[in-house]
Amino acid sequence: MQPITHQFLHRLSLQTKGQGLTDITREIAAALASHGAGDGLLTVFIRHTSASLTIQENADPDVQADLLTAFDRLAPETAPYIHTIEGPDDMPAHIKTALTDTSLSVPVERGRMALGTWQGIYLFEHRSRPHRREVVLHFIGASRDL
Questions:
Q1: 19 near 128, Cβ under 8 Å?
Q2: pLDDT in tens, 6-28
Q3: Nearest to 31 by CA among 18, 44, 22
């Protein structure tokens, strides 16, 4: 018997606290459960150019601190950028987004993301002040009800 193709689109509206990483793994897992996802592929997409997505270690918060420090060295606010109309943190935010991802693909097995033991999915806010960010989830695969 062939599995019935199941797909859904789900939007998450998330508030950030300013620059930093926000673990959104639980919100994504809840969406998979609420839509009855089985085995398939999940695409996670952020609809912004100054925030991004990443899969990172979720056990030691020092990883997040080191990532923020490293990205600030790669794209400092004090560099002589041409694009400055939205403030000194905007162009570095665009560079940081270009270095990371605006979409991720995650395998799903029996309704659960096939993440490693210490992996979590993070919204990576690159702007200094808080923002409302929208993340779109698209699942395609089998229904959990099969």
A1: yes
A2: 999 999 999 999 999 999 999 99
A3: 44
Residues 42, 137 contacting (CB under 8 angstroms): yes
Alpha helices by DSSP H, the chain: 25-34, 61-74, 90-99
Structure pTM?
0.94
15 has which bridge partners?
Answer: 132
* Rounded CA separation 111/126 (Å): 31
Q: Is 111 left (phi over 0), alpha (psi -120 to 50) or beta?
A: left
Radius of gyration of the chain (CA): 17
Residue 44: strand, helix, or coil: strand
